[in-house]
Structures are given as C-alpha cells and as structure tokens.
Amino acid sequence: MADDIVSVTRNGFRQEARDLVELAASEEAVAELLRRGLDWLTRVVRFDLATLFLLREGKLVAVAARGPLASDKVRRHELKLTDFPTLRQALETRRARAFTHEDHSHGDGDPFDGVLDLPPGHSCMVVPLCAGESCYGLLTLDRTECETYPRELVELVEVYGQMLATTLQETQQKSTLERLHRREHEHARLLEAQLGGDEVGVLETSRSAAVRELARRARQVAETETPVLLLGETGTGKERLARAVHRWSSRAEAPFVTLNCAAIPAGLLESELFGHVKGAFTGATRDRAGRFQMAHGGTLFLDEVGELPVELQAKLLRALQEKTFEPVGSDRTVRADVRILAATHVDLQQAISQRRFREDLYYRLSVFPLRLPPLRERLEDLPQLCVSLLEEQARRTGRRGVKVTAEGIARLAAYDWPGNIRELANALERATILSRKLELGAESFDLPLRVPGAKAAVEAPPLMEGSVPTLEEVQRQHILRVLTLTQGRIYGPGGAAALLGLKPSTLQSRMKKLGIARLEQYVAVTPSLEES
C-alpha cells in the first residue's frame, strides 16, 4: 500500500509543480492558495485530516482543513509553540517527519488532544512550510489507522511543503507590493495636488472663453482612448493639461508616466521608452522596464515629442499601432496597453517638410489636437493664476497669506510673458522672496515693459520707417488690455482708472479720443477683479 501511495505521489508531482507555478503567477488570495494546496493532497496522500497552521505571534493557528475529520472546531484550533517542542523542532530543522507510536507515547502529546479522539499510535506527519529565510507554519496529516507513513512519502511531501511555502511567500510578496503600489499611487496623487496637479485649476473656471472651450474639449476626449496632441508655447501648462486628461479618463487609477524626449540623450531614448535586457549594452547590468511597461494600463505622456530622433520614430509608431515592442537587446515581444498623450512646442508640419518628423507618426499622434493659448492671450486669468500659484508656493514654502494687489496685477498685465505660466510662477516666487510684505504691489515685480507681441530689445531687428507704433497706438493698446483685465470696470479700487493712475473722467476722455468703444463691450458675466 505504501508503494502505491508513493507511486501516485510521483505521478502527480510534476503536474502539481505546474499548478503551483500557475497559482503563484495569479492574484488569488492566500486562503484560496491554501485551499487548492490541500485539495491536491487528497489525490496523492491518504489522510483523514490535513490541517494547515500558520505562525502568528508564537502560535500555530489553523487556517484550513480537509478530510473526514475536518470541522469548524479544527479550523479554529490554536497551538502554543512552547507547549510542543517536537513541532518547534520541525520548524527549526525544516525537516518533515512521521510520528511513530513511541513518539505519541513519550513525546509532548498529540496536537489535537481535546479536539479529536484519535487512537494512540495513529498515522501522523508534520511538514514545515519554509521558504528562503522564513517559516510560515506547518502542514499536519493524520489518519485514524495505526500505521507509520513511509519515509519515501514523507520526503516527497516535504518537497511539496517547500513548494507550497514558496508559493505562499510569492503570493504574500505580491500582496505587499500591491498595497505599496496603491499607497504610492495615493501618495503621488496627494503630492500632485500639493504641487499644483489639480486638474481643474483655472481651466474650467477661466474667464477666457478660449480656455473654457479647451477644458470642455479636453473632458470630451478624456473619456475615449484617442491619442491627444497638446500644442502650445513653452510654459503654457501642457503637462498639467495632460494630467487633467488622465485624471478625467477611465484610466485615472492606473499609472501616469511621463518622458521628456528632449531631456534624454538620443542614444538612451530607446531604452527609456522600451526598456532593455541585461547585457544589451555597456552598463546594462540587469533587465530594466521602459516607460511603456511602466504605463501599462494607464497613460504615457511624451513631452517634447518633436525632439524624438527620426530613427526611433518608426519604432514608436509600431508600438502605437500594434501595442507591442521589443526591449533593447531582446527578441521577445512585449505587449503594453497604453494611452498616449504627446506634447510639443515646435511646428511639426514644418518638421515634416524638413524630414525631421515622420508624417505617418504625426497623423497617429494628432488625432485630437488641443492648443493651449499663451498667457498674453488670456490675461484676464491673471488674478486667478496668481492666487493658484501663490497657494502652491505656500504649500512648498509655508509662507501663507501672500496676495497680489490690483496695482501688482496691472504691472503683470503690462508684460507679454514669453515664458508663460512657468515664468509667472517664477516671478511670483522671486517677488515673495524679496518682499517682506504679504501684499505684492507693482514695485514688487522687476519686469520690463514690452509692446504686446514684441520680442526683447536685444532680439528685435532694427526698426524700419513705418514699423514704429505711434504713442497714441501704444496708449490705446495698453488701455484696452487694462479694460479687459478689469472686465470693463473703470471706477473704484481695482478699476481701470485706479490701475492706470488716472481720474475716471480723464480715462473716459482719453478713451473717447483714442476711439475706444463703449464700456459695455468689455463687461462679462464672470466676477469682477475685486470680487475675485
């Protein structure tokens, strides 16, 4: 009979190994793992009771049981290791053993005394569950027949116990990694919000009709899997809009991974995108996942995609079309489910004509283009942007309560912001550092006055006759900008007259002289400057 049992065990051993490997690769719960482990034992070992005990604070706690003698009482059974030296020895030596009649008679007693009425000398086997440097518990097998389990069978079940322990270890490690991943994801979202990653910001609440329309279209496309190409000057907030699209999408709980194509040396970009295997090149001492693998199930944001080398653009196109790629140095095809968002400040059409960008890749990326307006085209958002950026700054520096006065806003509005929102954030931080007051007035900002749309004097070509605007035209444009900023309001604190340092009657006379339209043209339904 013992030979039959050993034969059956040997026949099922390889299959069980495959089953355990499959189980270890899955995300099943520990309880399911243990249940399946005991179910397999019923096919290869005779027992009336198989019990799995896990170590918890110096105790062996039963977590699963199978066989005719299994009961709720058995499944709630607990043993103190200090009361059973033979069980403690099995864990310390990591060796399975079969108990004989002498062991029961002269040992430390039966672990199921008071729970089961087993005859003296009954068949009993104890198998430690140990893997690596850890021991997780014990597997006990009991039969009511008085026959010692053969040594060959004990050794095979010992190997099975090691496999079960290894699988248990991998499952628990995966569970731990998943918890850490969820914790890091929530932590990243918190940091993102603290550092200004709030997707709404001044998009949907903007006073600019163009920006509100941009936010509406971004929300629409966020609900799809369509690639989005974000266009706009440097510093207009393309990455923030990309994060908004991700947060508004069904992939919001999945990773948001970024890659700045202009910040990585051309020779390393392929590895950054697709990863590499050990030995692929000098310095590749281990396998490394690329951004596509990191973003699996989520969103990959390719910033400055116009800087991507031409030779790499074909591989990117294939990854977008087929959702497959090969890591550098590998012939193994990897599949990744990734939603692509891309951004650039360069003219891709011009790059295509110069053969610096593939036309087929352009059409793959620009299914749904979104253009972010420069700050000089949305100056009515200056008050809101200042509040938002100062709040972000306060979270980093701890200096709260800083505000920009109406005069300070007017000073900021007189500048054309070639660096856009990023430059505005830097100007506010610089002013906050230099000022001891909580209110930042016009004197707090050391910004050169520029004609709207003009470049810096050091960059401008020599002026030609007829190209110089008249003084009246400069005054007219400046008054128009201030009126737009104040929503057409002339009177009171924060009104256009106060910002320009003029009496309201003087401003109105000058408006009439310069041919500026009636006041009502500038009045909007959004809150006024002083209400903001």
Describe the structure.
Helix 1 packs parallel to helix 6 (151-194) and helix 2 (30-44) runs antiparallel to helix 6. The strands form four sheets. Strands 3-2-1-6-5-4 form a six-stranded antiparallel sheet, with helices on both faces. Helix content is 44%, strand content 13%. The chain is elongated, with a radius of gyration of 36 Å. A hairpin with an 8-residue loop joins strand 10 and strand 11. The longest helix is centred in the N-terminal third of the chain and has 44 residues, at 151-194. The protein is built from 19 helices and 15 strands. It has helices at 2-24, 30-44, 72-75, 85-93, 101-106, 151-194, 209-222, 238-248, 266-274, 291-294, 310-322, 348-353, 359-365, 382-397, 406-413, 420-434, 471-485, 496-500, 504-514; strands at 49-56, 59-66, 78-80, 97-99, 124-131, 134-142, 228-231, 256-260, 299-303, 324-325, 334-335, 339-344, 368-371, 403-404, 439-440. By secondary structure, it is an alpha/beta fold.
